[in-house]
Putative outer membrane starch-binding protein (Sphingobacterium yanglingense), 525 residues
Amino acid sequence: MKKILLYSLLGISSFLGSCDKFLNENPTDFVAPANYYRNEKEVLSALSGVYDVLGKSAMYGRYLFFEMDMSDEGFFALSSNTQDIALYNYDIGDTKLLNTWTALYEGINRANMLLENIDKADMPNAIREVYRGEALFLRAYYYFVLTSNWGRVPLRLQATKSPSEVDMKPSTLKEIYAQIVSDMEIAADKVADVTSYSNAGRVSKSAVWGVLARVNLKMAGAPLRDKSRYTHAKKWAGKVIDLGYHRLNTDYTQIFKNHAQKAYDTRESIWEVEFSYISGAQYEEGSVGSINGIGTSNTVIGYSYGAQKIMKSYYDLFKTGDERRDWNINDYYYEAAPSTNRILYTGSSAAIYYNRCAAKWRREYEKTGVKSTNTTVINFPLLRYADVLLMYAEADNMLPGNRSAESDEYVNQVRRRAYGKLRTGAVNVNEADLPAGLDEIDFQIALQSERSMELGFEGQRRLDLIRWGIFVPTMKGLIAYKSSANASYQYGFRTAENITDRDTLFAIPRDEMVVNKAMEQNAGW
């Protein structure tokens, strides 16, 4: 989002106000920390700067759901490219690699600075503690993204005071995760309830609980494999469910239309990265629906590069009647401008499948008079209620003893929505429900597919495959489809062909290795 030298000074109208968007004001000039943090307004502005990092192109503006989440769901649809992080063929000097690393540490440093200065402010203590909780959570979240993608990283818990503070050894995974869990659990007691906000841009208790479930599932999987964390994952997901506020939107497609229309539904979409106009035709850094989405040069619809195509194996994952297939994957394309007509795909040639796009976010639903070519106002979801239900079921299934009936029910709730049962009110759910009596292994296999069908292209699939310990073999398995793919799309298998065991982690950026003499490079690089 908007940039400033040290942190963006953005504000909202009030503490728990019902504004349309959290980060909605222009940045002010840089102010030295010694002369800042004097009151609630300045603390809130600094907190907004911590949130600001989420929307950078190197974060959820683009990289974390596109180039850095290439998996068995889709491929990088630029046939001329042979070297890119999205193809798992890059060197440690890759600029995208560095940009994301830098953005994450920028967010951490902003959070550290706020945490070190927040007690100076003349403001109500109750509000101060809410802000402190948000800063603690965001610092922990940025570390979670770092360690999920790079493994062992330096754990910096104080703001940088001097350019010479660069040499720092990477912490152990146990140390990093202990800090993440500690910060998030403290934050859970401090941040506001989800019903305090009319938008999804702020971190609420539900968001913290849900992300804690995600963190603990990761700790239970590769590389830590601490099975005791399944109990914690189930507990935190259960707190979101037991709150009784959240529920599934009856229409799966409406979730993503809401992201384009700035229609907040915090019962389903618990936490989002927000994007909007700055002024005139100038946008923030979001490219949701522009870099991905249904490819078209039709500027009336909204220009989209359609740069993320789908693998046929992902198309085949969906069964007849699952409405998510033709939303996650387009079954139509657009005529040229000024027409807004849709043309349905017909036939079944391989070209038709591999030419389809990751289509969850469609620019035709943007409610705006000016649609930029490269950026959009479409929000990106960081946590949805469906994810919470699936995380609960997975954690419960992996615990000793018999799986609870609730876990099957939670998965089936997600599936019933996918088959239109929640929207239509139909009572026959046999078509949607999982087979009864699945054992632990078959349930886990079914759940792994379910997460991909429900959460496809939301920045989770690569990380899921890694924590399950099946990332490399799953990707290599795609090569079996290559011989049946149209010749025009053979390049779509480059990611699968390039991948090796080292790609479960990204390389530490060259700049970090050069500057930080105590840093250690990841295996294989």
